[in-house]
Amino acid sequence: MQEQQHEMIAAIDLGSNSFHMIVARNLDGQLQLRDRLREMVRLAAGLDASGNLDGEARERALACLHRFGQRLKGFAPGSVRAVGTNTLRRARSPGFLREAEQALGHPIEIIAGREEARLIYLGVAHGLADSDGVRLVVDIGGGSTELILGRRFEPLELESTPMGCVSYSERYFSDGKVTAKAMHKAVIAARLELQDIEQEYRELGWDMAVGASGTIKAVGEIVRAMGWAEQGITLAAMRQLADALVEAGDVQKLKLSGLKDERRPVLAGGVAVLLAIFETLQIEQMQVSDSALREGLLYDLLGRIRHEDVRERTITALSERYQVDRAQAIRVARCARRFWAEVGESWQLGGEENQRLLAWAAQLHEVGLAIAHSGYQKHGAYLLENSDMPGFSSTEQKLLAVLVRSHRRKFSAGLFKEFAEPHRATVIRLCILLRLAVLLHRSHSSIELPRIRLRASEQQLNVLFPPDWQAQHPLTAADLAADQELFAGVGYTLVVENRE
């Protein structure tokens, strides 16, 4: 991406309770806020135990995205990042994501909990004064809560827990009823979720605690308006707020300054989670941040535009961790990029993002050798799909995993069933290019390959070799013959020719 093509950028957070969008102008790496949009969609409220979204929740979400899409008309490809969090991670509604992308007019990524935590920390850190101290950042969403320890712009520990203001309100305070027993049960349940990180976080310690997003901002407004805390949120103020909820008995009867009506249905669950965090981690005071996930998305997108992509660091770290043969990885990646340059347009392989993913898969195609040689393509795919990979969405990790899984041996339609058309065709074509690049470097030799040309049509790929080269390399010729049969199984014809 060229920075001048992305003067206007946008970030969209498709949360469990609300959808948020911010639009900013990129001024030589400095962000100038231009617009904010926020709608209470209550997506999690429409999700059943099987992961199905009901019709009303779908309609609310799609209507909101249509409105967001109107604001984004004319934005360049790659200048918008939209991510789905806990509810969309759990959703199993066929076709919803495709409809959502059509309504918005831009791709939507589903991100894992720890990636969400990383982006939240990035957003909050950019809103704080520079300091060398350790920060504890807490973000309570509709379906999950993220807790991060970090210094400056680098997270040190990341955790995402399955508790949120929507899920806890529905589970413990149905119909808005609040009793002392229900509040106690909700707080204890949240404290149990925090058990795994309690000792580690308290031992590492922090110099300041900061809260972000809807629940914490709402609580901050209430305790300030009620005069329960002069700055931020205190443990004493949290206990007063919990007592006020119990005394009212019903969130609709609650009369508190600073409380907005739209926050009432999920307030009790959010208060229970936040109180549990205060008590478990022994927090006495917490500042409230105006920045959160969406600001983190903007800064992460800005990094990609300025070629400071955190994903590059992730690929390098994985390569080093699993002792990937760097020279071989570079050879295969260069070959894959060269093939992309020759057929990317005719095969409609998408933009720069897919080219990068192809090159990253090439760099990591042998990562599974760290486990075992036998079936190492399977081990590599498992590592890439299930590892924490900062900067990568779940969809991107799945694509990398499929590319690595299919670079040798099995190559059948079943490998690509998770991808819907037309994306499936793109994935198959990327896999074919990577497979050819690996095949041609099977010897791991440092000797440069001769000029090998590719020509592509809809369902066919022609590979043109110099005269006599195949005759001098019978193993490669045999591998190509085997791949001709395998490619036919997914509807593609591989034609091997000698150039004149």
Number of discrete helical segments: 19
Q: What is the correct CATH architecture of the largest domain?
A: 2-Layer Sandwich
Q: What is the top-level CATH class of the largest domain?
A: Alpha Beta
- Please name the CATH topology of the largest domain: Nucleotidyltransferase, domain 5
Low-confidence stretches: none
Biggest sheet descriptor? 6 strands, mixed
Strand content: 15-25%
- What is the overall pLDDT average? 93
Neighbour order of strands in the largest sheet: 8-7-6-9-11-10
Q: Based on CA inertia axes, which overall geometry fits?
A: elongated
CATH level 4 superfamily of the largest domain: Exopolyphosphatase. Domain 2
Structural class: alpha/beta
Strand runs, count: 14
CA radius of gyration is: 26 Å
| Share of residues in helices | 40-55%
In the residues, how many domains can be counted? 3
Put the structure in a nutshell.
This protein is of the alpha/beta class and 500 residues long. It has 19 helices and 14 strands.
Structural summary, described in words:
A 6-stranded mixed β-sheet has the order 8-7-6-9-11-10, sandwiched between helices. Strands 3-2-1-4-5 form a 5-stranded mixed β-sheet, sandwiched between helices. It contains 19 helices and 14 strands. Helix content is 47%, strand content 17%. It has helices spanning 55-71, 86-90, 96-104, 113-126, 165-172, 180-193, 195-204, 213-225, 235-248, 264-281, 293-305, 310-321, 326-343, 352-363, 376-386, 394-405, 423-440, 469-472, 474-488; strands at 8-14, 18-27, 30-40, 80-84, 108-110, 134-140, 145-151, 154-161, 208-212, 233-234, 285-288, 453-457, 460-465, 493-498. The protein folds into 3 domains: 3-111 and 295-302, Nucleotidyltransferase, domain 5 (2-Layer Sandwich), CATH 3.30.420.40; 128-289, Nucleotidyltransferase, domain 5 (2-Layer Sandwich), CATH 3.30.420.150; 309-450, Hypothetical protein af1432 (Orthogonal Bundle), CATH 1.10.3210.10.
